[in-house]
Fold each of these.
Amino acid sequence: PDPVRNLRVEAQDSSSISLTWDVPEGSSPSQDLTYWAVCINNGGQSETWNTTDTRVTVDGLRPASSYECSVWVERDGVNSSKVNLSHSTAPNPVRNLRVEAQDNSSISLTWDVPENSCSSPSQDLTYSAQCTDDGGQSKPQNTTDTRVTMDGLRPASSYECSVWVERDGISSSKVTVSHSTAPNPVINLFCVSQTNNSITWSWEPPQDPDLQGYTYRVQCTGERDKNETRSITNTSITFEELEAGTVYNFSVWAQKNGISSSPETLSNSTGPCSSPNPVRNLRVEAQDSSSISLTSDVPEGSSPSQNIIYWVQCTDDGGQSETLNTTNTRVTVDGLHPASSYVCSVWVERDGVSSSKVNVSHSTAPDPVNSISCVSTPGGYGVILTWSCPSDGYETFEVEVGRQWISRNGSFCDKGVSVSDLGPAQSYTATITTVSNGLRAPSISVTCYTESTAPNPVRNLRVEAQDNSSISLTWDVPETNCSSSSQDLTYWVQCTEDGGQNEPRNTADTRVTVDGLHPASSYECSVWVERDGVSSSKVTLNQST
């Protein structure tokens, strides 16, 4: 008969390989065919199996072993040729999987090698491990060792960790163990109060969005064999009946899912409370002419939630400000003098005991100027600025007009500062800023207006023509001006005779005809220029109709 077709592996485990195939070409499952199967490796061969089905499981094999499996067809006592494939059995699973250690981000696993295996490199086994919780799963880790640390886990979380063996691309079944990571340690352990025979400690819970199910193991050890351990659910505890003037060590472990965090430990003596630590990183956030805003970091070993009071005071040569207290790490001290140097002090109070002071030197800003006046200089090419002195200290004044910037010392207030090189008939924003100790007051502005300058007269006035009732005049544009419309010049013309004068007329052109005149009469004709409401001198000539 023809051989089987498409021989393939359906499955395998550590002691068997399941094979399947298609019937020989030209045959059907209903024909009287017998299929024979055998798997052979270096150590010998399996029992020969026969079946009338197109699948068979060859068992009794050795784990993690490579086999060559053959299938052939028998019909009427005659065999087909064999069809072969190579495949391996799965390795045995690991044994005795167990947890070696854990912390708040990892679980360390170890195990024994699979049964019928050895731990030598020649065994060519690879171990894969993976831990999963409700939030997802860790990335599988591979190793040829029999221990692995699964890290990158979440604190105080329950995990199901699996380990399986792989050889020649075939994996064993998984062996699983359930375990939890340790919680994060408690935060900001501190002494709340102490007497000659008792100490009260407190702390903040670990960083964890789910604080349900937490307990705390608390231990107090000291002289005379003092060693007391308690388990509580709140975050504060008092140990009493202690020896006066004795040092005690206090440790707290957070516990969840039966696993403890690393301990937080603090030592204190019975007796009056010691001074709290001073504030850290005292700095100025802002200032104006009457206040300074300060901020600082909490003292070392403290937290914002502790029962701490901050006291603040700013002093200058003239006295001191009112003393302020706050539970916040920022405060604004107001009621100060403008442009004055201050030494600001901050200290901590806890349980009636004060820390040392931390100081910072800073100045208030100066007051702005007031009563600014601005007057144009004759001709319109400059202005004179005058302002009143600020009420308190000042060093210099920064003056800006248009794009010009100048600095003047404090003696210039009430005296005036001249700014030149401006344009006539223009408006300018003038800004004056008080400066003292490197600090600037808010700038004060005023709008300045320069005078208009009279334009130059026309040039070369002449008669172009005349008849018995009119005279036509023309002229050249004034010196240094052009005749473009952007020059914004208006020309006025008037002709007079002994008997009276005609009405003045205006034009933007450099020629005009004055009509309505008497025949055979002598006239004096004048032309002048106007710009921005300011007129030039007149240019005159005599002519008759």
Note: Residues 280-363 form a domain with the Immunoglobulin-like fold (CATH 2.60.40.10).
Amino acid sequence: MAPAAPLIHWPQGATANLEMFWRWLHIVSAILWIGFLYFFNLVSTQFSAALDPATRTRVVPPLMWRTLNWFRWSSLVAVLSGFAYFGQIAGAEAKNGHGNAGA
């Protein structure tokens, strides 16, 4: 008895795999970016206000430094991966329309 054929067919070729990579990198980094934005606006402001000044000076700076670092890099990766994904799609469309993908 032969095994059943799989129902999922992954895209073949480097171009399709690269598009999938850029898309998922963009989605994940954008989710992180928006999540950290909500963290700053909703969680950290109320958390810092609830602390007494001595504890706040000890706790908030290291926490904010780490969080701002993740926020900065997730936003940069989201923007750059979005541009790369758009460039790959626009380049393919320019080739389909008999245009020049580089100009």
Note: The CA atoms of residues 32 and 74 lie 6 Å apart.
